[in-house]
UniProtKB/TrEMBL annotation:
It comes from the Bacteria. This is Uncharacterized protein. It comes from Micromonospora cremea. The chain crosses the membrane at residues 20-40. Keywords: Membrane, Transmembrane, Transmembrane helix.
Length: 198
């Protein structure tokens, strides 16, 4: 049986109408991806251009010379018990070619347990020493001790770490040096600490 169409012929549907809403979404995604890609390229070119120094842009360079070497810890430590107080110290050396003026030494007590009372330029147990509130010159190659005396706030300070920070002036500049110290006080004699069995 033959079927004969009557009336004008319908034009074919556009391709996106035949596929529902998925067609317009796909077109929008493609346009968005191309736009984003082009914007990214333009931004990268702009940043690269602005990062290039101009012909008269200043340049900075850090040069470390022997004169700029910090005052450092030699690795030697000392301790002394003064009544119930504990005195701890570190030995430092000026390895530079210019005099350093020692301004201040401060303890770093990550776990507490101690309270600093006095600090001095001198070794542990010295009867004569210079109070660390007074600036102290350290000539090139010279060695000295820094000590801090603590109130002990617990029966035994063995697990406590004690570190030292030094502030000094050299060639007109102020510098801070982390000197290290005692990772813990387990090897420091203190009468209120019970010796471990062994």
């Amino acid at each position: 049986m033959d079927v004969i169409e009557i009336g004008p012929r319908r034009p074919p549907l556009p391709w996106w109408r035949g596929r529902g809403i998925a067609g317009p979404i796909a077109v929008a995604l493609v346009i968005g991806a191309i736009t984003g890609y082009l914007a990214g390229i333009r931004r990268a070119e702009t940043q690269a251009h602005s990062a290039r120094p101009g012909p008269h842009a200043p340049t900075t360079a850090s040069v470390v010379t022997a004169e700029a070497q910090p005052v450092t810890w030699t690795g030697n430590r000392c301790s002394a018990q003064l009544g119930d107080r504990l005195q701890l110290g570190v030995e430092i050396v000026n390895r530079s070619a210019t005099t350093a003026t020692l301004d201040r030494i401060e303890p770093v007590l990550p776990l507490g347990g101690l309270r600093a009372t006095t600090s001095a330029w001198g070794s542990c147990g010295q009867l004569s020493y210079v109070d660390a509130k007074t600036p102290h010159p350290l000539p090139p190659g010279a060695i000295t001790w820094l000590t801090i005396t603590f109130d002990v706030l617990m029966p035994c300070p063995a697990p406590m770490p004690v570190l030292f920070t030094l502030t000094y002036t050299q060639a007109g500049d102020t510098a801070i040096s982390d000197l290290g110290g005692f990772p813990d006080l387990g090897n420091v004699p203190y009468t209120r600490c019970t010796p471990s069995p062994g």
